[in-house]
Design a protein that fits this description.
The complex is a heterodimer of chains A (118) and B (115).
Chain A lengths: L2 E3 L4 E5 L4 E3 L2 E3 L6 E7 L6 E7 L6 E3 L2 E6 L4 E6 L8 E11 L4 E6 L3 E6 L1
Parallel strand pairs in A: 2-12
Antiparallel strand pairs in A: 1-4, 3-9, 5-6, 5-10, 7-8, 8-9, 10-11, 10-12
Chain B lengths: L4 E3 L2 E4 L5 E6 L6 E8 L3 E9 L2 E5 L6 E5 L5 E5 L8 E8 L10 E2 L3 E5 L1
Parallel strand pairs in B: 2-11
Antiparallel strand pairs in B: 1-3, 3-8, 4-5, 4-9, 5-6, 7-8, 9-10, 9-11
The chains are: A mainly beta (118), B mainly beta (115).
């Protein structure tokens, strides 16, 4: 069965520090997609990145970067020079086979609450 | 382009009542998925509708049901409410049926409190 583990429940950093959020996943599929979403206090999930299982290239978008390592089933997210506005709950999610139907749904990790102190 | 909208944003009900939540997807999106978010269980998939048909269902009791209309708007219904149904209910829309690669756009959610 698919599973996403975000072992860090809460992280607190001071502004301008770099921070890495860990994500480990389990799946039997050879083809799957991984996502990161941000949930600010308003509650709406904001899409950050999608990565498919065949593309292990790391990606950088501004202060955000993602490290996908299939060998360790990890998809970690790093924020460089964190800012107060980065404070939110971050979710890692996996999209792969759904039960026996072959259809898809997102399996979310439990989330990591990031607090960036000024 | 307007985002996903959900109504109402907040709702208070008592045990045993039923409730209906509404979701309007982004214009042109045909797939709507529903998720329940609680502190204990996290984010869990409820069901997905595409072209007025339920295509996917999570592991929730039959008290949870939904439907989708011809304009892609979706409603979710919970009957015989229990205290444990208190949660943030999130709706997400995507262009086509949810596949491995589909990006889902989430609404702000409806916070349901059951007393």
């Amino acid at each position: 069965a698919q599973k996403v583990t975000q072992a860090q429940t809460e992280i607190s950093v001071v502004e301008k520090e770099d921070v890495t959020l860990d994500c480990v996943y389990e799946t039997r599929d050879t083809t799957y997609y991984l996502f990161w979403y941000k949930q600010p206090p308003s509650g709406e999930l904001v899409f950050l990145i999608r990565r498919n299982s065949f593309d292990e290239q790391n990606e950088i978008s501004g202060r955000y970067s993602w490290n996908f390592q299939k060998s360790t089933s990890s998809f970690n997210f790093t924020i460089t020079a964190s800012q107060v506005v980065d404070s939110a709950v971050y979710f890692c999610a996996l999209s792969d086979s759904f039960m026996d139907t072959g259809r898809r749904a997102l399996t979310f990790g439990s989330g990591t609450r990031l607090q960036v102190q000024p | 382009k307007a985002g996903v909208t959900q109504t109402p944003r907040y709702l208070i009900k008592t045990r045993g009542q039923q409730v209906t939540l509404s979701c309007s997807p982004i214009s042109g999106h045909r797939s709507v998925s529903w998720y329940q978010q609680t502190p204990g269980q996290g984010l869990q998939f409820l069901f997905e509708y595409f072209s007025e048909t339920q295509r996917n269902k999570g592991n929730f009791p039959g008290r949870f049901s939904g439907r989708q209309f011809s304009n892609s708007r979706s409603e979710m219904n919970v009957s015989t409410l229990e205290l444990g149904d208190s949660a943030l209910y999130l709706c997400a829309s995507s262009l086509e049926q949810v596949t491995r690669s589909e990006e889902q756009f989430f609404g702000p959610g409806t916070r349901l409190t059951v007393l």
